[in-house]
Design a protein that fits this description.
By secondary structure, the protein is α+β, with helices and mostly antiparallel strands. It has helices at residues 2-12, 148-158; strands spanning 18-20, 46-49, 57-64, 73-81, 87-88, 104-105, 126-135, 159-169. The chain has one domain (22-169): Phosphatidylethanolamine-binding Protein (Alpha-Beta Complex), CATH 3.90.280.10. Helix content is 13%, strand content 28%. Strands 6-4-3-7-8 form a five-stranded antiparallel beta sheet. Strands 1-2-5 form a three-stranded antiparallel beta sheet, with no helix packed on it. Strand 3 (57-64) and strand 4 form a beta hairpin. Mean pLDDT is 89; it is low at 1-13.
Length: 174
């Protein structure tokens, strides 16, 4: 009986799906900020591990829930990332990056394809949440111009696990 309980306990204690970024700290670096706010608009390095074995693809989002739009602001949506990809190098969100095609990058709320860094209105800091999703589907067939909120809902419906990190940024921070 003890061996069975330990085995069950071992399954329950399995490693958690995690996301890490050496670039994305509590206070977001100016190089990751949108150009209109004085930044370089460079997407951060993302590394994830311990996805569920059932994962068929990954997706990435970056979302600002504090944007004064009534529905937040989508800064980055990437879908159809193959399961053998577990890292997005710095600046992979740029259409000119050699890593841009690691996944299918769609439009953000700036109306641009790929990564669009933080650029909140003046005021208190906003939260920027980057999430990597492990999905139960191999991918989605959507146009790059599809509203990011619609794609995010589809991602949530097919997520079997997710891991997030959060950073803060206020206009004028250096």
């Amino acid at each position: 009986m003890k061996k069975l309980l330990l085995l069950i306990g071992g399954v329950v204690m399995s490693m958690a799906f995690t996301l890490y970024s050496p670039d994305f700290k509590e206070k977001i670096s100016l190089k990751h900020v949108y150009p209109a706010c004085g930044g370089e608009n460079i997407s951060p390095t993302l590394i994830w591990k311990d996805a569920p074995k059932e994962t068929k693809s990954f997706a990435i989002t970056m979302f600002d829930p504090d944007a004064p739009t009534g529905h937040g602001w989508w800064h980055w949506v990437v879908i159809n990332i193959p399961t053998n990809v577990t890292e997005f190098p710095e600046n992979a969100g740029s259409p000119v990056s050699e890593y841009f095609d690691l996944g299918y990058q769609t439009i953000n709320d700036y109306g641009e394809i790929g990564y669009g860094g933080p650029c909140p209105p003046p005021g208190p800091p906003h939260r920027y949440i980057i999430t990597v999703y492990a999905l139960n589907v191999a991918g989605f067939k959507v146009k790059r111009e599809t509203n990011p909120q619609i794609i995010a809902k589809a991602i949530e419906q097919h997520a079997i696990a997710k891991a997030s990190i959060m950073g803060l940024y206020a206009r004028g921070w250096r």
